[in-house]
Design a protein that fits this description.
This protein is mostly helical and 191 residues long. It has 10 helices and no strands. Helix 2 runs antiparallel to helix 3, helix 6 runs parallel beside helix 8 and helix 7 packs antiparallel against helix 8. The radius of gyration is 21 Å and the shape is flat.
């Protein structure tokens, strides 16, 4: 029910630290938390918050017991999805402010898809992103709604590709097992 993003980054940290201890897990999760808080700071500043207030908010979040609890509990599974969701909002904001830049909308979709791949519950952000694209497509003169929706959905599909391929391989494996086990029944019916 969740992707392998957490595992892949953990493997990179294992290669870097040379250990597979609990400390390695904490290091990986602290990296995720720090990146998420940094992206949150960028979003706060881009939305007009005072830099000092944004820094204070992010610093308090970084040392809060709630965020630190995610490092040592199973909630760490959601940390990559939080990063990808924040990046989705960042690219969506950049797309909204830019003129005719589909790369930012595609990047928002890819990050949204990676968030869904990292943990399925991030799919609940999709309606907000989708409605934001619809609403802001009406304000852009040289953008067509259908092209924007296609770009966003393509990005989500690209981000979810490992998820889609994983479930497709399960279906193909189940179908192979079903037909290979029933081969003898088909032979019996045929005779």
């Amino acid at each position: 029910y969740h992707g392998t993003v957490t595992m892949l980054v953990s493997m990179a940290v294992i290669l870097f630290t040379g250990t597979t201890s609990t400390l390695q897990l904490y290091i990986t999760n602290c990296i995720y938390g720090t990146i998420a808080v940094y992206i949150l700071y960028i979003l706060l500043v881009k939305t007009g918050a005072n830099k000092k207030i944004g820094f204070a908010v992010c610093f308090l979040l970084l040392i809060s017991p709630n965020l630190n609890a995610t490092y040592v509990t199973q909630y760490y599974i959601e940390l990559p999805g939080i990063i990808f969701s924040l990046l989705t909002f960042y690219f969506l904001m950049e797309w909204k402010l830019s003129e005719a830049n589909h790369k930012k909308l595609l990047s928002a979709g890819v990050c949204g898809g990676l968030a869904v791949y990292s943990y399925f519950n991030f799919l609940f952000f999709f309606p907000f992103v989708f409605l934001t694209v619809i609403r802001n497509s009406q304000n852009k003169e040289n953008f067509k709604l259908s092209k924007n929706i296609f770009t966003l959905l393509t990005g989500y599909a690209l981000g979810c590709t490992p998820y889609i391929l994983g479930y497709l391989s399960l279906v193909l494996l189940a179908a192979d097992n079903l037909f290979s086990n029933n081969r003898y029944i088909y032979l019996l019916i045929a005779t």
